[in-house]
Design brief:
With 441 residues, the first copy, chain A, is mostly helical. Helix content of chain A is 68%, strand content 6%. Chain A is built from 22 helices and six strands. In chain A, helix 3 crosses helix 5 (51-57), helix 8 packs across helix 10 and helix 15 (205-215) crosses helix 16 (235-253). Chains A and B meet through helix 12, helix 13, helix 15, helix 16 and helix 17 of A and helix 12, helix 13, helix 15, helix 16 and helix 17 of B.
Chain lengths: 441, 441
Amino acid sequence: MILRLLRHPGERPARRLLARLHPADIAELVPLLTPDELAELWRTLLELRLATRTLRELDGDARERVLAQLADEQVSTVIARLSAHDAVDLLESLEPARRASLLEALDPARSAQLSNLLRYGPATAGGLMDPEVPRFFADETVAATLERVRTLAEERRLFYLYVVDDREHLLGIVSLWQLVSAAPERRLREILSADVVTVRADTPEEEVAQEFKRYDLLMMPVVDADGRLAGAIHVDDVLDVVEEQATEDLYRLANLDVHEDLATRPARSVRLRLPWLLINLATASLAAFVVSLFQETIAKYVVLAVFMPIVAGMGGNAGTQTLTLMVRGIALGEMDLRRSGAVVARQTLVGFMNGLLTGLALGLAALAWERNAVLSGVLMFAQTLNLTVAGFFGALVPVTLKQMRLDPALGSSIFVTTATDVGGFLSFLGTATLLLSILQP
Amino acid sequence: MILRLLRHPGERPARRLLARLHPADIAELVPLLTPDELAELWRTLLELRLATRTLRELDGDARERVLAQLADEQVSTVIARLSAHDAVDLLESLEPARRASLLEALDPARSAQLSNLLRYGPATAGGLMDPEVPRFFADETVAATLERVRTLAEERRLFYLYVVDDREHLLGIVSLWQLVSAAPERRLREILSADVVTVRADTPEEEVAQEFKRYDLLMMPVVDADGRLAGAIHVDDVLDVVEEQATEDLYRLANLDVHEDLATRPARSVRLRLPWLLINLATASLAAFVVSLFQETIAKYVVLAVFMPIVAGMGGNAGTQTLTLMVRGIALGEMDLRRSGAVVARQTLVGFMNGLLTGLALGLAALAWERNAVLSGVLMFAQTLNLTVAGFFGALVPVTLKQMRLDPALGSSIFVTTATDVGGFLSFLGTATLLLSILQP
């Protein structure tokens, strides 16, 4: 019924229906429509201001098919309403020729911003900057500059003026206050301060954020490889970077896709989480395989199975502690990669010591519960080894990923958990098997 | 030997030794010294600029004892060098009388800042603000104000002027540009814009950060309950808040103490992580207890033990996914707590669907491996239930903590893992036991 209505999306009943449907639900119907119906639907959605949200709910393939069928003006209207990040995603999925013609159709400021994002990548100073920053020439007088500032100050916050030579090389800055305090006939060249923190357009955004924090800046000029002024970054955009970066670390440690949030509809959540769960299933099978090697031992001493969850749980927890500390330390720039050997050694030592202490607690508890000294000894030994492995891999995995220029958080929790599971079960069940064969030859 | 040298810390050999020792190592020797030796050591450490770092390495009790033995001037020198956060920690550990006299001895700006932190708490707008913000009175003329700005602008960034009435109630703001463009004889009252975003001093810092992002602000005035100007928050301090908040979420989900970082020495790391590991040991014992109820079943079918790591691992992973999504969503203000029922239901549904799908994969893999249809069926069922439990508790725990006005991340991962372990083993081993008794009566 809904579908029948949507086949005539321009008519009143369909419009009323569309206005009430969730964009996610509209998205599910889109693949069922013919090109003509789709074009009409899109016109209606644009009028109802639902087009952008519906497009965002469409997945890769469906989205590309929709975009291919829409007219350029319809796509530009959507791009104008999308966030810069989503707009770049959309533009990147199009052919270069269409991308260029769409960019031209946008208003110049938006077009320049998106071109920069496409050129430098979204995670760089170039992608982050506002390229529209006004340039002031070194040979201009204070009086002429004041006149220009007067017209500019109405539409933007202008606290610092960036002074360039006639080939746009950045020479220095003049604060608004310096400008109004200076004699009108002086030239900017004479009053500028050359002591200015700049950043290259290809600098990763994490480093940009660290510079902002180090110098307590409100804005920072961005230069190209030749020192020419390319734009400026405002601190409020850095605020978003810091937050997104932290969310990414969190998500990656939990094996979540960065595109999911609390508003994601269930079907999409399932699709986004499933790959990670299947990878985890495969790696957990490795732990299961290790256990399967010791079925005979477990058959003789079923109590070993009782303690398996403790071995796995403690290793996982200790590994996550180390991993999180490392990932955050690397993200915040606390880590000197040349000293990574010492850091891994230190974390392994912490794991060993905590393994010894919790192993003691576990061994004593097991002794009280099961009154079996051999079992207690095995648990103590396995727990110590388990947490040593957790410390070692919890530190080694993110350091190695970072040295390979990959994200230290990506997939590392699955790797570390597998290492602690395998290491824990091997040491626990292996030692038990060994001792059993000695005690009962 | 070292200790003998340190008994005369003012002499050359001891000075040379101290300069080479790590503050953490000095800290370990401090409890062994007599009060006189300690006072002399501290004088030397202050000269060597090692006192602050040594103090930071001392733990609660040892630190209090050291502080009790030091003269007020020695403590103030240290406070002046500590970060605001550490300084407040230190001041809070002292008696009120001594705290007040130490605050008086500090330079006025530092003293005002620390008093605010102590009064409003560090995690509020009041703790975050700079109370030293200049007040401009509404009846002042533009000319007089320009004169005052001239003297102020040299030492601080002054982009907006906060205009107050004679009882310091905030009336509005005047931008520097509005000021220099206005006729000199006009009064601030006539040129101010009253449309200004303010924040109350007792607002939590998370909300402050959200306001800054919503309005893209560079600074925001802070007012007390009566609307009087109390200070101003700069965006660079908000940058630190956003970052600290994210680190806290990450750390709490991983059961790490927020005071640990990559530079923490091993002994302290062990102490900080051990409590969480022991709590985890206790909750993991609950899972072990559940397994112990099914020892008979496992003895008959040892292969069940082989699949236990998969049950535990998948439940833990799915629970962490949901939990992380919820904690971050709540922190970023995505969550409407009145709709928490719907959110929990949605996450449970996602867990159920992923449980069904991964259960199918697991069941088929087990069928290929073990050629046992009953085992496969049990695994499918248990996996579905396991991930449903993971979705339910992964969402419910942080929501409940938030509604109790606690941190949604604190301890929640241990609770959720316990729930998935217990739920997973109960459903897996429980169903297996049930089916076995049916098949083999």
